[in-house]
């Protein structure tokens, strides 16, 4: 039983965890490294369950004030064509450029001269970050995790913006889905070419965690990423969706909030959807719940017969089996959105490259501590730096 917000922490991995050498040159393994980098989970006792932790994320705390510069990429995939955005964290404290009013807070476009100057032979480690559903680099949960690394002066970071999110423009009728890994793949390849000596690390949150895990499973040992952390991955999307629909609060609160966020996103791109697709936008914008939106948009756009088929195809539980770099996955078992029933315990126990860390409290991307801090940022930082 949890007392006064003290969550229990459990680890699941293969009986023979991945053999590694520590920074001191001593032999160790992935499980021991993860156990040493995951601190005790002491959360705010007033936010005493997953619903309270999750709902408190709507309080929209300010969070660390990171600045970004945005670069627009043209996709090199024949079918998933069009443009997408990547936000690069500003690591030079002397840069105080005003934000672009058309972009999220503290974000501006790179100038032409800055774009031409991109590239370096330095060896600074770099994070490649994927945000959650309809989010962006401005999300508070994301900034809480990467700000300590940026503020240390040793790290670089960029956030791959999902198509149409964070005030990015689409140039086709395609928004993103959880199976679309091409943008992150192109970005990682570009980073490896442009910054050849930088060790690259992955970090994903919620739906972005699902996309990152799918990418890692597809790439296996071929990925340029050295290691990764995924936080609040919904894993088996069809299970999480059914669990949400099975309860009153899940259906009428969470499904509605998630559906409204996707509807608002689609409405920003009404002209493009009407120009490049045959989707009836009037009907699309009338839907209230996420599964309705996915049925009306994801199915006809991506060729899925049902939203359940999309959820099964986009789930990342099976992808976990094919991961071949060190991966720490963090989930809260009281998460009302990424259901505990969807967490791939058996798969994690079958792959020595993965360690699944579950906390008994935390909700969905909550983990609020007393004073407003976010616990999940600590294991992210410590594991990535180890």
Radius of gyration: 20 Å
Alpha-carbon distance between the termini? Answer: 31 Å
SSE order, one letter for each helix or strand: EEEEHEHEEEHEHEHEHEHHHHHHHEHEH
| Relative helix content | 25-40%
Count of helices?
15
Q: Give unreliable regions as ranges.
A: none
Tell how many strands the DSSP assignment holds.
14
| Outline | globular
Structural class category: alpha/beta
Strand order of the largest sheet: 2-14-13-12-11-9-10-7-6-8
What profile does the largest beta sheet have? 10 strands, mixed
What percent of residues are in strands?
Answer: 15-25%
Mean pLDDT: 95
Structural overview:
By secondary structure, the protein is an alpha/beta fold. The chain contains 15 helices and 14 strands. It has helices at 30-37, 50-56, 112-117, 140-151, 182-194, 207-219, 237-245, 248-268, 270-276, 281-284, 290-296, 298-302, 307-314, 345-348, 377-385, and strands spanning 6-7, 9-13, 19-21, 27-29, 41-42, 68-74, 83-89, 107-109, 126-130, 156-161, 200-205, 225-231, 327-332, 354-359. The strands form 3 sheets. A 10-stranded mixed beta sheet has the order 2-14-13-12-11-9-10-7-6-8, with helices on both faces. Helix 4 (140-151) links the parallel strand 9 and strand 10. Helix 7 packs across helix 8 (248-268) and helix 8 (248-268) crosses helix 11 (290-296). The two termini are 31 Å apart.
